Amino acid sequence: MSLCINPVCPKPNQLNNHENHFCLSCGSHLELLGRYRVIRLLSDKTAFSKVYEAYEQDTPKILKILKENLSGEAEAVELFQQEVTVLRQMNHPGIPKEDSYFQYQTRNGLVLHCIAMEKIDGLNLEQWLEQQQNRPISQEQAIAWLKQLLEILDLVHGKQYLHQDIKPSNIMVRADGQLVLIDFGTVKEMTRAYTSQLNNGSSRMMSIMSSGYSALEQMNSQAVPKSDFFALGRTFVFLLTGYHPLDMYDIHHNLLHWRNHAIHVSPLLLNLIDWLIAPELEKRPANTQEILQHLEEVESQLTETNTATVNRLKSIKIEQLISPITTKSLLSQQNQLAKIPLLAFFAAFIVSLGLLGILALATRPAKFAVMQNYGQSPIRKGKVDYFPYQEGRDSQGRIAKFNVAVLSVEYKWLLGSSFQIKYNDQIISLELLKLNLEQEGIQKIMKNPSKIISVGTASCKGDVAVEQRIAMERSRQIQLLAKKLFSNIPSVKDYRLLNLGHFQRSNCQVSQDLTAYQRSIIIIGVKQKSADVILDEALRDRLDKKNFADFKLEDYSLGSAEKFKTIPSNL
Question: Based on the domain organization, do 293 and 390 belong to the same domain?
Fold first, then answer.
């Protein structure tokens, strides 16, 4: 399909347009600049511009077009062109790349202002959270994402610009986990913002505002860098609660009651968010570096708290182990002697069972003589189940080696959650697991891999598409953990995600695991032996032909050769 962008075209989506250079309805050019073909309208919700999806040969692009009624407004055109100026100055994976600015003339002589730019492959955070059934993000995810956005904002403010429209729908997440701040059409130079304040907001352009996210001073056309901090904080209110800020706002008392919806988050992080969204300008942080420094302090304090929790849990466990031993040692000699006949009886009984077992093994069919389909056996390293390096080959016979580590059989994903882990009957964070793994020496156990692959899986509960998204988010959470664990290991150069999706055995039950590691936290280490080895093919070969324990790729919705793939990560 090829869409005509002439606003007065009687039939812009003419079926045969894709076969022609000119619109069959109005005669306007369908190949803009001889390069871009518009496919569909993505958004027409703002009073400022329309957003289309276009293609330059096989490459998808975003095409923004200033609305035709503003084409003659000098101030509107200048603001629209400013987005091009800003994007050209930014070189960051968290900001879209500008492709070109041009003017397009329709057959009836109407001039349209156009910007072509990189299309981000992913969802915005509003859509992303909706796909997660509006489940709040974890504390660890919030810290990682806040760091990413602050680094982007530091660059924008460093170039003397205000974004003015930070909100979940203007933040996209790439497949590799990198956040991207979009919609720079509302950006304002700080010097102009100051001049606007001196003129008491006399500009004819309306102030930019997004209900629930924009600060009061911005609504009064007096935006400053701290206004972006307010919007950033309100964005994390949404992400940490799953509720729009206005849904928690008490209009009578001018209060935002949000903290009771984020009970899984430490007060340290909650206080930082409250600092960002303080109603009074003077109570907000001065700049991005101040926020980053404070965030680093929060993270450090959370680590210390989790260390203390680990030590406390260990001391409780030791006490539980010592108690029965002490009780046993207090048995009297008389009682022990009284048990001797009973022990002799049990010994004879066990010997009889052993003889029956040997007889059964000797007489049963040969096909049952060995446990079927059980692969590589684990080596227990503390609480970690470790499976040593095994070769995998790609379709050309090139080799890579892969090991597997199940990060403690005692820690499993909480059913339905993409960030909570269950340890016995307790719910713990990934940070707490990180401290345990450091004490187990996971870095030495993995034996100097060059890459770490984080494996995401989900249970048989619920809709397949939803569970596959949960599995993807779990792989990202494990990647956050892996990056912290291996950041000081020189051999590790790359991190990747592997989403295996939904556990799909027909007899699967929500409350019962059918395999040893169905809900476990798993990472894979890589040593590349052959140059140019196709990693995904070699990894699948290793997992399929030299599987570990009772793990089978066929048990997972994304385990087939057509769907199996790893994704590079920027986390």
Answer: no
Q: Which of 243, 272, 298 is the last residue of a domain?
A: 298
8 Å CB contact between 160 and 287: no
Q: Is residue 58 domain-shared with residue 135, that is, in the same domain?
A: no
Do 30 and 88 lie in one domain? The reply is: yes
Phi-psi region of 254 (alpha: psi -120 to 50; beta: other; left: phi over 0): left
Grouping H, G, I as helix, E, B as strand and the rest as coil, residue 259 is: helix
Strand-pair category, 122-124 with 161-162 = unpaired
Sheet arrangement for strand 421-423 = 411-413, 421-423, 426-428
Given the structure tokens 């295996």, which residue do they identify?
500
User: Is 370 inside any structural domain?
Assistant: no
**Domain-embedded: residue 54:** yes
Q: pLDDT class for 341, splitting at 50, 70, 90?
A: low
Q: Which of 118, 136, 161 is the last residue of a domain?
A: 118
Residues 547 and 475 in one domain: yes
Q: Which residues of 183-193 are buried (b: 16+ CB within 10 A; e: fewer)?
A: bbbbbbbeeeb
Q: What is the mean pLDDT of the chain?
A: 83
pLDDT confidence tier of residue 225, bands split at 50, 70 and 90 = very high
Give a yes or no: residue 461 inside a domain: yes
Average pLDDT over residues 60-67: 94
> What letters, b where the CB count within 10 A reaches 16 and e where it falls short, cover 384-393?
bbbbebbebb
pLDDT of residue 349: 57
- Report the CATH number that the domain containing residue 93 is assigned in CATH: 3.30.200.20
- Report the distance separating Cα 53 and Cα 232, nearest Å: 27
Looking at the 3D structure of the chain, how many domains does it have?
A: 3
In this structure, the answer to whether residues 171 and 114 fall within a common structural domain is no
Are 52 and 173 found together in one domain?
no
Evaluate whether 40 touches 24 at the Cβ level (below 8 Å). Answer: no
- Residue 259 sits in which domain range? 122-298
Single pTM value for the model: 0.63
d(CA 159, CA 87): 11
In a shared domain, residues 84 and 225: no
> To which H or E segment does residue 494 belong?
strand 494-502
Q: Which distant-in-sequence residues (6+ apart) come within 8 Å of 57 by Cβ?
A: none
Structural domain includes residue 153: yes
Task: Kindly list the distances between the CA atom of residue 522 and the CA atoms of 59, 193, 373, in Å, as whole numbers in the listed order.
Answer: 35, 50, 20
Q: Report the pLDDT value the prediction gives residue 374, as an integer from 0 to 100.
A: 66
Q: Are residues 137 and 45 in the same domain?
A: no
Report d(CA 167, CA 174) in Å as an integer. 17
- Residue of 196, 163, 155 lying closest to 182 (CA atoms): 163
pLDDT surpasses 80 at 45: no
DSSP string, 510-535: TTB-SSTTTTB-EEEEEEE-STT--H
Selection from 98, 68, 58, 92 nearest residue 5 by Cα: 68
**Three-state secondary structure call for residue 358:** helix
